[in-house]
Amino acid sequence: MRKKDLAAAVLLVAVVAALIYFAFSQFSRTAENPASRTSAGQMEYSSGTSTNSAGSATANSSQEKLAANAGELPPPPPVATNIPPLIILQNARQAIIQYAQVYGGNPVGTNPEITAALLGDNPKHINFIASDAGLRVNAQGEMLDAWGTPLFFHQLSGHDMEIRSAGEDRQLWTVDDLILH
Hints:
Shape: globular
Largest sheet: 3 strands, antiparallel
Strand content: 5-15%
Structural class: alpha+beta
Order of helices and strands: HEEHHHEEEEE
Helix content: 25-40%
Number of domains: 1
């Protein structure tokens, strides 16, 4: 019985190490290639245009605000992802950890403020979100979980943040919530 428990623990540690390595290698590749930093990943946006009474296209102001805050153009339309919900949450946590390594502490604020900081609205204009991380942002600038619900960020300390996904039921504070520290 003890050998099985030990084997399971070793396997769990190996899986976690592999996930951290994968996330770090993806960030490193993005950080080394400035051209890849112009894309904030697989983001969810509306088309970005609407039509006024004269039939002319007008820009979506929330997209313009996000682009102005991030110091770059809005990312391309969303791409379907098959990334598991827990991996998406781990990728969000990894982006926050990398931000903290560069700036000495976590990004602070509401979901849109944290998301903007991770997308490049920071002193060095660094995009901490890898293009293939599966992280999506809605038209309000909020980072979303796998089910399209805004993530909840709870600052525990200057270097520790809880990230909560509402889970499949899309309701925060229920038993199916996914939580990472």
